[in-house]
Amino acid sequence: MFRRGSDRAGAVHGPAHTVLAAVLPPAAVPVGVVPVTAGGTTSAMFRPRTVGEAVEMLAAAHDSGAAVALLGGGTDLVPALRSGERAAEVVVALRRVLELRVRGAGADSLTIGAGVTYTDLAGWSLSPGLARAARVVGSVQIRNTGTVGGALGSARPAGDLLTFLTAADAEVLTTSPRGSDRLPLPRFLAEGLAPDALVTAVRLARPGGPQVYLKIGERQAAYPAVVSCAVLVDRVRHRLTCAVGGVGLLPARMEAAERYARDEVDWSTGTVSSAAARRFGDLVVEAATRITPALPAGPRGSAEYRWHAAGVLAGRAFARCLHVTAPPASGPVGDFAAGGQP
Amino acid sequence: MTAVPADGLDAGAEGADRAGGAAGADGGESYRLNVDGFLRTVNGASIGDSLLTVLRDTLGVTAVKDACEQGRCGACSVLLDGRLAASCTVLAADADGTRVVTVAGLGGAGLARAVRAMFLAEGAVQCGFCTPGFVVAVTDLLTRHPDADEEEIREALAGNICRCTGYGRILAAVRAVQAERGALRSGDAHSSGETQRHGETQRHSDGGPDGW
Ligand SMILES: Cc1cc2nc3c(=O)[nH]c(=O)nc-3n(C[C@H](O)[C@H](O)[C@H](O)COP(=O)(O)OP(=O)(O)OC[C@H]3O[C@@H](n4cnc5c(N)ncnc54)[C@H](O)[C@@H]3O)c2cc1C
Ligand code: FES
Ligand code: FES
Q1: Could you tell me the fold of the domain covering B110-205?
Q2: Which residue ranges make up each domain of chain A?
Q3: Mean pLDDT, chain A, as a whole number?
Q4: Looking at chain A, which terminus has fewer C-beta neighbours within 10 angstroms, N or C?
Q5: Domain spanning B3-105: which superfamily?
Q6: ipTM of the complex
Q7: CA–CA distance from B15 to each of A158, B25, B34, B60 (Å)?
Q8: Gyration radius of chain A's alpha carbons
Q9: Do B159 and A140 touch (CB under 8 A)?
């Protein structure tokens, strides 16, 4: 039944014995069958056209005991399969699931399908902040191919979208054979995705004020950021949120700095003092040093460097979201005010 | 391997669907790829093979180059349904039903011809290994943004690495194409790359607040 259903939806499969190896429990594989290993261990690919079909295929492959991977744009998965860093006997490719490529706007929220690419987001006028974050991902090639679902699936420590969505209190929409679910991003990241589920979309509030995303790292087109920071302002609810990526294993919210901002900003004008911008950065550094579990120090920067960079980026993003004044006289000051006027 | 002009066959989604389910005569997986306008049948490739690997090793299409296989160098750049992509980050079997265009399929006239000619005229080719990827990327850029300024050009080509030229000659070639094409569009005073070098862009994430 699995084979029939899958074929109808467009399966590409290997020689009969490797397909069996992929979809049957290991114990059921006939003795003497040697799995094909050239080009990795992948022996079957399924190409559903709907979310329903995708879930059916995921569940059947999972029940058979095969190692399954969802394929979005492939910018993370395909090189990893090639290098042997990842192995998947069955690949469920989402390219043809058109319903995942939809993005839409409700009265207060934006919903972005898992198949939406960075290039699609980069020109989205309904969310200028998100669009700017998407524009600084990788290269044209990566932005044209990489998807929102892949960004959530990879969950990189300083993933651009992940950092932005963390600051945006985003929700993740998933579908599995048990139905659809909607959960806050931190819970999604903590619990992980069930092996028979896929991310269908993310949902976030419509922007309620200035949003700034900044990152620092090596050559952008070739390497994801080392440290990332998003600051989002909600003028209506008098709220400022800040997330920092690249310090912990996942982007983290800077709650003390957020509370400080709530009290410090003049919400009628969006003005803060330049001293407050510096203090905001200092609070982010303090919080960054306490993030657990911390990212293991690697060749791309010591922990101290990351803490410092987090503070600099946060202070800068904060200043760019607001009008910064110098105490006691008012008026734009130096670098902090760059871009601070509308 | 068979090669038939894609135009001569039903290459639409339905055709791709059928091809996707068929097993090859040799028992290996079989699917079709539309490469440079020709429908090619792929037999015997592994399902985990990238589009780059299948193009070069199975179909003998050497117009894509293989360097990093990590999506970082752009040597393997193709247009996938009209969008620039690194073919090493795509699984070939998942490209069934899409249009794959390499440098060889860009055409012998128009913009692609101008790009190739200016790469030669401006000395933008040294060892030439990066050139096919660059020509695809530059053609893609100038199709979308004929008047791209210096910063836009650099940003658009950031996914392509050249170890020989230092990029100066490549940028010169792009501006030469713009100048030539601009001259063709009569009365367009803004076509020279030089006049647009200092053009302001707001593509980066460090723009000022826009919500107050
Ligand atoms: C050269 C290069 C530069 C890069 N630069 C950046 C950068 O600047 N910033 C950045 O953030 N990232 C960067 N990346 C990483 C990568 O491009 C992104 O993380 C991208 O969003 C991955 O999306 P994809 O669709 O290509 O994912 P894929 O490779 O298809 O998948 C990635 C993971 O997500 C899973 N997955 C895919 N779709 C779903 C779904 N719908 N539901 C659940 N799981 C799913 C896959 O199983 C896999 O584990 C870069 C990568 C490369 C190769
Ligand atoms: S070989 Fe594909 S980007 Fe380098
Ligand atoms: S000309 Fe040699 S790599 Fe570019």
Answers
A1: DNA polymerase; domain 1 (1.10.150)
A2: 9-96, 99-205, 211-338
A3: 86
A4: N
A5: Beta-grasp domain (3.10.20.30)
A6: 0.84
A7: 41, 18, 11, 23
A8: 22
A9: yes
